[in-house]
Design a protein that fits this description.
34% helix; 28% strand; binds NADPH dihydro-nicotinamide-adenine-dinucleotide phosphate; nine-stranded mixed beta sheet; seven-stranded parallel beta sheet; globular
């Protein structure tokens, strides 16, 4: 059906590549490109399909991307590099006539701030070029938006309250590690919280609002209110929502480490000057610039290596209140994903798996012509039904609870 180019060969990229390879009727030609080509080659070796091509590319450079796109001529790019590369990849897509999908919205490197405005600004250019851009197609954002669209389509006349609840009850047996790129993860968690109520955005101090929430098959876990990007598009696309929040669980040990990291300045994202010895062994010192958070990433466990000893599961879902046929209704739709099952299938843990599978399904939706319309779109703006059907087939089955206690 079509040619796909995956950019990024990290935890999520590895899962996307495995899932793309499992669907050869849809993805007829595949290339994985990233900053470090050897990582792409290792993914191809693990999949065992030498027909998958690999390439080196610096996705910060529009010129490099353009020449790669012109030589491979993909129908769609799945961007699972870092949020910093979203705009350069979108620019290159426009220059070469390639469609686009990502799992995280753009963030500037020098400012820990994320919002959709930068990417929504591309809407008219994608429309005029006749190209589709699908934004935020991982789990959250991604499946969280598809779940909400499915709820709106089938179970509500009006939705009033949306709580996205994200629990990782896994144990990787490390003192401290992040489940996806440490730099992006720590930037996200240390930001102020933000939620939407009665048409206004309300800011909270980082991780200051929390309560226990009970997750299926897991039990109660302390859950923290955070700012999460999909709230921005969901309240815009479903204006009857009066209250929208995002909750994520953290263990006490994780929070203690995070506190220390912040208090000793290791989460800083500004450049510092550091005296380092010259590599020639002369003992001479040279001044180099380092960003503490990037340095920390280099010493923390690589999220890609957590899978082998990871036990337990993730549970992510949407808890929604609203009205159907004149009656109040609650609805909870969720998926639980086992870290070990994800590892056995793809060599990666559950957080990479729950992100990579939906990214593959989004690209499948595009190539099948189901999610294809010129412009820049968030996932809830497409028909959720065929996507929900694929979630059940591709390893992320979902479950529903009607009129239960949402606890929120
Ligand atoms: P990793 O750090 O494991 O992987 C990122 C990959 O991108 C690496 O292969 C890296 O190359 C490559 N890369 C980084 N910069 C460049 C560049 N300039 N040019 C080319 N390649 C580059 O991250 P994850 O796999 O954990 O996460 C990938 C994305 O998924 C992130 O954007 C993250 O925010 C998103 N995500 C989304 C979630 C969701 O549910 N929506 C949940 C989790 C993650 P190298 O190996 O050389 O460093």
């Amino acid at each position: 059906m079509g040619k796909v180019l995956i950019i990024g060969a990290g935890g999520v990229g590895t899962v996307v590549a495995h899932k793309v390879a499992q669907n050869p009727d849809v993805f007829t030609e595949v290339m994985i490109a990233s900053r470090t080509k050897s990582k792409c080659d290792a993914v191809v070796k693990a999949i065992g399909n030498p027909a998958i091509q690999t390439a080196q590319v610096d996705a910060d450079s529009v010129d490099e991307l353009v020449s790669l796109f012109n030589s491979f001529r993909p129908d769609i790019v799945i961007n699972v590099a870092l949020p910093y590369q979203d705009l350069t990849i979108m620019e290159a897509c426009l220059k070469t006539g390639v469609n686009y999908l990502d799992t995280a919205n753009y963030e500037p490197k020098d400012e820990a701030h994320f919002e959709y405005s930068w990417q929504w600004a591309y809407k008219q250019r994608f429309e005029e070029a006749g190209l589709t851009a699908i934004l935020g197609c991982g789990f959250d954002p991604g499946v969280s938006g598809v779940y909400t669209a499915y709820a709106a389509k089938h179970h509500f006349d009006e939705m009033h309250q949306l709580d996205i609840v994200d629990c990782n009850a896994g144990n990787h047996h490390k003192a401290f590690a992040t489940n996806f790129n440490p730099e992006i993860n720590i930037r996200e968690i240390t930001q102020k919280g933000l939620y939407y109520q009665d048409g206004e955005w309300i800011e909270t101090e980082p991780l200051s609002v929390h309560q226990p929430i009970t997750y299926p098959n897991i039990g109660p876990r302390e859950s923290y209110l955070m700012h999460h990007e999909e709230l921005e598009s969901l309240v815009k696309n479903y204006p009857t929502i009066k209250l929208a929040r995002f909750w994520m669980t953290f263990g006490q040990q994780y929070l203690t480490y995070l506190d220390v990291i912040q208090n000793i300045g290791m989460s800083r994202i500004d450049e510092l000057e550091y005296e380092a010895p010259l590599a020639d062994g002369s003992g001479k010192q040279v001044k180099v610039k380092i960003v503490p958070l990037q340095f920390l990433k280099a010493v923390l466990p690589n999220p890609q290596d957590l899978g082998e000893n990871y036990e337990g599961e993730t549970s992510i879902g949407c808890r929604i209140k609203g009205v159907k046929d004149g009656k109040e209704r609650t609805y909870y739709v969720y998926n639980n994903c086992s870290h070990q099952a994800a590892y056995k299938e793809t060599g990666m843990q559950g957080v990479s798996y729950t992100t990579g599978v939906p990214a593959m399904i989004g690209a499948m939706m595009f190539l099948k012509g189901i999610w294809k319309k010129p412009g820049v779109w968030n996932v809830e703006e497409f028909d959720p039904d065929p996507f929900m059907e694929q979630l059940n087939k591709q390893g992320l089955p979902w479950h529903e609870v009607f009129d239960g206690d949402l606890e929120l």
